[in-house]
Amino acid sequence: xNSLDKxxxxxxSQSRDDEIARLTELVQSLNSTLKTQDIKIQALIxxxxxxxxxxxxxxxxxxxxxxxxxFEDDVVQDIAAVEAELPATTAAPRARSGRQTLPEHxxxxxxxxxxxxxxxxxxxxxxxxxxxxxxxQLDIExxxxxxxxxxxxxxxxxxxxxxxxAPVAPAVIDGSLAAPGLLTWVATSKYLDHLPxxxxxxxxxxxxxxxxxSTMSEWIGRMGFALQPLADRLSELxxxxxxxxxxxTPVKQLDPGAGKTxxxxxxxxxxxxxxxxxxxxxxxxxxSRSGQHARDFLHGWQGSLMVDDYGGYKKMFxxxxxxxxxxxxxxxxxxxKFFDLQVSGAHPQAAEALRRIAxxxxxxxxxxxxxxxxRGEHRLLNSLPILVDMHDWLIRLRIATxxxxxxxxxxxxxxxxxxxxxxxxxxxxxxxxxxxxxNAIRPxxxxxxxxxxxxxxxxxxRAAAIQSLFATAKLNGIEPSAWLKDTLEKLPVWTMRRIDxxxxxxxxx
Length: 509
Prior knowledge:
This protein has 509 residues and is α/β, with parallel strands linked by helices. It has helices spanning 3-56, 65-85, 180-191, 197-205, 213-238, 291-297, 314-317, 331-343, 348-366, 372-399, 406-416, 418-422, 435-451, 457-475, 480-490; strands at 155-157, 162-164, 243-255, 260-271, 281-286, 303-306, 325-328. Among the domains are: 11-50; 229-500, no CATH class. The radius of gyration is 34 Å and the shape is extended. The N and C termini lie far apart (116 Å). It comes from Gallionella capsiferriformans (strain ES-2).
């Protein structure tokens, strides 16, 4: 082999070695990339599994209902984001339960999608329609401002020299540029959607509409005055019921003199779902938690009142009270004492108490559709034996439990309130717990985080009146916005004798 051949062989061998080294490095790089991707995919899959377990697993009652709701929203968002990030080949197929049926009452806007050509692309023959595929999507048109122009022609009589024109229709706010629809939008946005007025001002500004906060505040003040008789009438009708729920929640009220806020309270009163008649809820805004406010609201009322163990109600239940009110104890509150023990760690006695209380609620579920007489018999046969046995068990357990312990406090809460806790089981029309009024007040408790505080006592009372009407409408399955718009249109010419016809309740048959 000559020197030239040796040189060519050396070059070829070197090139092959370089290529092998390059390919080896490439394979190692690809393997490293695949390993990294596998690790990421596994991490994402585990994250999806964890999020699904958190979403569908047992709910932790240590979180409030609002906190759980917000948490679940975030979990759903995270799951969707992680699944979108996963490669299509590794993402598990999503279980679909069928497309949601959209409400029939909504307007249908038809969009037809015709092919570019009605001839066959293969043979150029005319296509024949054999059917059509129909799918629906839900859409929305955001708040749309428009102007209603009222034109009233004027007619003159030349002979009598008089002028005739249609009269100006009376309005809730005389001379205002706001139509009932706009007033309704402002009120529902503020009191149902809990949007501060400055945000409504910004929404309007995006459509080049000037709605100042001061103007909207004035509208709400005048609307509140016009709607107050309806709220007062709701209170009258509520006090005609024989069984009521009551609860209270703190709110902040501006204290201009001190330059800060002070604590006020929104007292809530609700009808009993087991009674006949439409459901009613009334909110009463007061500047303190004094039990005198409840006594003033229920002055002269006689019946059974479902409350928690707050001492402000106790004077109404005293033997020498000026009017007879019977106390009903809330099993949801009694249960909560044992639940708090159970979630802090495995607690066999608390678990047993929860099991016994669950039996009481199972009896209630079975009697949900019964009338008063049948439910009363059902409770006597099923609930009372459970309660008698539970009472004996709690007494024995208390003797063996150290004073001051968490279990002792939970037992004492139930034993001290035992007569009021078992009262429901002796009838067919009394509720087992105070959840209905707590559910009614919950949206306001969540909304107050947005509006932060009430500007004054008058503001708080006005908000309570409007909230009473809105909350009662929702309880009766009435769309609050539609109800308010219709009411604002009718109210200026309505007579007080027919005020019940304007209330957001469904008339009894």
